[in-house]
UniProtKB/TrEMBL annotation:
Alphabetized UniProt keyword annotations: ATP-binding, Nucleotide-binding, Transport
Pfam families (UniProt xref): ABC_tran
Annotated source species: Pseudorhizobium endolithicum
A molecular function GO annotation: ATP binding
Organism placement in taxonomy: Bacteria, Pseudomonadati, Pseudomonadota, Alphaproteobacteria, Hyphomicrobiales
Domain of life: Bacteria
Name listed for the protein in its UniProt record: ABC transporter ATP-binding protein
Length: 174
């Protein structure tokens, strides 16, 4: 018997379509998309600029609604944003002075995952997408660091000032 736990992370997309208005006409960005992603599977969405990659990801994250079709995560329809899904934007949005591991682990800790578990999970996914060789942070200017950290509900150990004294290599500025 299949349980909810055995299906964790499965995504099913059925006949997904999305349209935008352009000069008073409907522009089809996504049309009749069908896709199944199994738990643990890594998928890349590749296409030309304007082909609907970001729109598809926004629909999967619950940030945008489809005009037709169905998107299921673990058998349940996506209805708005949810804690089980996240979006990582192309532009630096959070803590650019962190290592890749620190940037991935931080939101897990914000959600209440224990620090060691968050780091372990972050490393697993970083390995999965081939980013293990990119562990050194790029040192931002003080202004960039302040803009990235201000107003963010993150654990204090993720603030720029706490980094200089931490001994954990994942958070080191060295």
């Amino acid at each position: 018997m299949e349980t909810q736990a055995s299906r964790r992370g499965e995504v099913s997309i059925r006949e997904l379509s999305k349209y935008f208005a352009l000069n008073g006409r409907a522009l089809s960005v996504l049309r009749g998309i069908d896709l199944d992603v199994e738990s643990g599977q890594c998928v890349a969405i590749v296409g030309a600029s304007g082909s609907g990659k970001t729109t598809l990801l926004r629909i999967l994250a619950g940030l945008e609604a489809a005009d037709a079709g169905q998107v299921l995560v673990d058998g349940a329809p996506i209805e708005g944003v949810g804690a089980e899904r996240a979006v990582i934007f192309q532009e630096p949005r959070l803590l650019p002075w962190l290592t890749v591991t620190g940037d991935v682990a931080c939101p897990l800790e914000v959600r209440g995952v224990a620090a060691d578990d968050a780091l372990q999970r972050a490393r697993r996914y970083i390995r999965l997408v081939g980013l293990l060789d990119f562990q050194r942070p790029i040192q931002p200017s003080c202004r960039e660091a302040w803009l990235s950290a201000s107003g963010s509900p993150v654990p204090s150990r993720y603030s720029r000032n706490s980094f200089c004294s931490t001994s954990r290599s994942e958070y080191s500025m060295r």
